[in-house]
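Revision sheet: structure tokens.
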Amino acid sequence: MENHYADTAIIFIDVINDFQFDGGDKLLSHTEEILPNLIKLRHLAEKLKLPIIYVNDHYGLWTSDAKSIVEHCMNEANGHIIQQIKPKANDYFFIKPQHSAFFQTPLKSLLDELEKTQLILAGIAGDICVLFTAKDAYMHKFTMHIPKNCMASEEKNGNDYALYLMESVMKAKITPI
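Predicted:
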């Protein structure tokens, strides 16, 4: 049987987050809503042996050490989220200086090396970092699938509008996981 996912990679964007900013409480609440779906997506990736790539804000640490970022972001409000979705030893982990997972990161080089042309994007904030990542992925001619129940933003209407743009402009497939 042919593996329809042979050219696919999963990218988790900013799922390691401290939520310590204006609007962070809303984003935390919306992230809690999608957490079961993020876990389901992770299990699917593991089952299909797809590469899992985390691209995350650096929080001023400027280290690509996932453990350091996790420890820095962990707090009483988000610990239950981070513990369930944090990177595992065989996952890839990059930091990014700004919104897009492609901007000044080795993501494109890694995807080329792995011969991946299809991306499944998930994470937070959907109307900022996931949207900017999708825009860059589109510019690099990647095919995209964004599970709409694996993306959260501070405001639901902003999240919905970002999904609309990713589907209508960037030709992403938008369905639930």
